């Protein structure tokens, strides 16, 4: 279908042809790894990740969280050396990887019903195959699908995406016309623009993840957050479609 440019100037399109509030193509599958308790594969643009979930399983000696008896979440992230422009292998002590692991652990600790599995361990393993922006958001979305596939109870989905402030919004004039935020940044946009990653709980506007790794004027944050929350609602619809399609395949397979 050709792009309708009657009410939208071509000059306002981004380098990849999207408007400011459009997501990149998002593709996902669940139950991609038969040997895992839960698994998923997700693409957000050219960012591609595989996620597997093991457990809940009996915790290792001393592995349960102290006193509370709730399950413990362990997150492991592996980044392929060929995944980005820089052809290098990230070690276990890599700062960026540690930050991602901590963000995912904190997000799912507050969302999963861990009290149902005392003294157990849930391991989330993520393998990054390609990086082109929105990496944390892709990891959160992929982990959500894998946890659903594993049957781990949660209060609701975590749906995540990024939002940035356009270059015109960084100008000194401060006019409202130049303050359009951008949704779902790709790799080139993340290198040039301030951005944040936001994750919401289900179809609500309750924010459970909010990470900003760049500096931005404080008056820009509200508009960026609003666009990010709206993008999470779009992501929720896509994840719902993936889960429903998988459910239909299971029913059809059982009927044969």
TrEMBL record:
Signal peptide: none annotated. Residues 22-153, 178-230 form the Exoribonuclease phosphorolytic domain. The gene is SKI6. This is Exosome non-catalytic core component. Belongs to the RNase PH family. CDD domains: RNase_PH_RRP41. It comes from Cryomyces antarcticus. SUPFAM superfamilies: Ribonuclease PH domain 2-like, Ribosomal protein S5 domain 2-like. It comes from the Eukaryota.
């Amino acid at each position: 279908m050709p792009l309708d440019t009657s009410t939208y100037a071509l000059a306002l399109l981004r380098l990849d042809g999207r408007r400011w509030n459009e997501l990149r193509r998002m593709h996902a599958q669940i139950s991609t790894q038969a040997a895992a308790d839960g698994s998923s594969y997700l693409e957000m643009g050219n960012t591609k990740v595989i996620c597997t979930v093991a457990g809940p399983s009996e915790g290792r000696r001393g592995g349960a969280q102290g006193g509370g008896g709730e399950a413990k979440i362990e997150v492991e992230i592996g980044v392929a050396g060929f995944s980005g422009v820089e052809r290098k292998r990230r070690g276990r002590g890599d700062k960026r990887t540690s930050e991602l692991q901590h963000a995912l652990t904190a997000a799912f600790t507050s969302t999963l019903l861990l009290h149902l599995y005392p003294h157990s361990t849930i391991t989330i393993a993520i393998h990054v195959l390609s990086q082109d922006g929105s990496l944390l958001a892709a990891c959160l979305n992929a982990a959500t699908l894998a946890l659903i596939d594993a049957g781990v109870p949660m209060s609701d989905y975590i749906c995540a995406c990024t939002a940035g402030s356009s270059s015109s919004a960084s100008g000194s004039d401060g006019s409202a016309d130049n303050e359009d935020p951008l949704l779902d940044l790709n790799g080139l946009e993340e290198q040039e623009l301030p951005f944040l990653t936001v994750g919401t709980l289900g179809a609500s506007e309750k924010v459970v993840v909010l990470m900003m790794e760049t500096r931005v004027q404080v008056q820009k944050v509200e508009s960026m957050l609003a666009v990010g929350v709206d993008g999470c609602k779009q992501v929720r619809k896509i994840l719902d479609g993936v889960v429903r399609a998988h459910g239909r395949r299971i029913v059809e397979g059982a009927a044969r």
